[in-house]
Design brief:
Blueprint: H1 3-6, H2 12-22, E1 87-89, E2 92-94, E3 105-107, H3 126-139, H4 143-152, H5 154-159, H6 164-178, H7 184-196, H8 203-214, H9 216-230, H10 233-241, E4 246-252, H11 268-284, E5 287-294, H12 317-333, E6 340-344, H13 355-370, E7 377-381, E8 401-406, H14 414-429, E9 439-443, H15 456-470, E10 473-474, E11 491-493, H16 508-516, E12 523-525, H17 527-536
Parallel strand pairs: 3-4, 4-5, 5-6, 6-7, 7-8, 8-9, 9-10
Antiparallel strand pairs: 1-2, 11-12
Helix pairs in contact: 3-4, 3-7, 4-6, 8-9, 9-16, 10-11, 12-13, 14-15, 15-17
Amino acid sequence: MTGDVRKILIPLAVVLPLLLAACGEGSEKTPADGPADARSIPDAGPVADGGSPDAAAEPVYGFCEPNAQAFPVRTPPTEPTTLPFLHVSGTDIVDEGGNRVALRGVNFGSWLMMENWIPGIGVLFEDDLLDMIPGKAAEFGVAELVEEARSQNILDWISEKKPHWVLVREWREYTKRHATAEEEAGVEAFWAWFDSEPWVFEERSLWRWLWGRFGFEKSEELRAAFQDHYVTELDVGRVAELGLNLIRVPIWYDALETDWKGQNGFKPQGWRRLDDIAVWARRHGVYLMLDLHGAPGGQSTAWHTGIEDGGHLWTEQACIDKTARLWKAIAAYFEDDPHVAVYDLLNEPMNFPDRDAYVAVHDALYSAIREVDAKHIVMAEDGYKPADMLASPSEMGWENAMFSVHMYPGGVSADDYLSKIETELSKIGRYYDRFNCPLFLGEFNAADGTDSGTWAAEAMDEVLSMLNQRGVHWAPWTWKFFTGQVDWGLYHPKENDGYRIDVKDAAFEKIKADFDALNSQNFEPDPALETAFTNNSEAEPQPLNLGN
């Protein structure tokens, strides 16, 4: 394409807001999504020195590699149970005595499923890096070419048809393929700059970056430091002190098993952490909901599946099989534990092509669980999809099952936010008669509104009260956040508010110290949000009533 043609292209800065406005429904918890997998990027991913680990000496990522290792076996806990088993009865959750129970809690986001924006890992977040592109492209004399490349797949970007990292790779390929002789040096310089900035926006890309800097064993040491400090028994105790009775635990499959070529197995350290939190749940009298936040192959193209090239779960049998077997292992491990109340099969399953695919994958996971565990509640989610693409648990023939939705509608005031949540619940109520099961609002937060810092706590109080009255179970997103300037987390740092952890240039010892410092003993609650939780944690459970 010639330079003259480039001049008539509509600039991305103009197109993007228009497309965002047109595609505003189904928004998620951050404005940036992203993503790429072993089939489309090097084994080590982008690393600081432009190289990769020695594949002969260290593991190599595969793609939904089978794991034939025997299931982990849980050592029987010495802590006694303090809560009864729960099960579904119609649209209610009840205990063993038939008493209605309301599940009210929080999400332990970013612990066993890294979302780097939550603990503040990386000096640049994805939006920051992408915002730098036009200026840097101009600096290297390739602004028009880069803008042209970005315009080629803008609809795929907005529709989330492909992961962000895959789309960025397409920009790179396009610019190299279409550069004039005069532009070639500028293109090389531009992408050299881009590669010097860490792409650490999915969990696997973060560990790959650190792997490239410090080697595999050191990167694993950093990973352990983060997971051993970000959530401890202190956090579970604090949840109980608020009067809450539920913790949703987002999990990346890679926390529990490897995905290496030729050497797959379960990870004892991941199962130990699940075992720890299950024991803490007994001590403090709370339930757990285990949420497969990132499945093998990815249930969506979003970065919060943990991989750079997600969305393949729906079409790759190897990924379905690996996911089903992992759920079977989890169910076998916790079969006799009443404190693990719910298995949340797939977080935000957004990229399934149709209802048949939704049913096929979910039913495979449900069936795998029921082979070893008939006691626990199983839950499906809507993935922000319309009702005609979904199947209810009863329509799939499931027993002891419930359903979940997530809502990030935005807002400009507490009343506006409350109204938007009520409107979304009313929409669900129009089709929910065919579901006939308990409803869980598994993620929401008024912090996704406009200038929400002045009203988010008030909105949370109002929404939690409304959900209690309507008999909807709930868990806002999320427990901790690296800054108290916005209310994404109930807890935020006592000191160094807003501090971002530099993984690009900082030494290993500094990064490890920063990860250690993420222990919640260094965090404090937002008083207004704390009050919102305590005001609504122990209200009398009500029957489900969506207002229709």
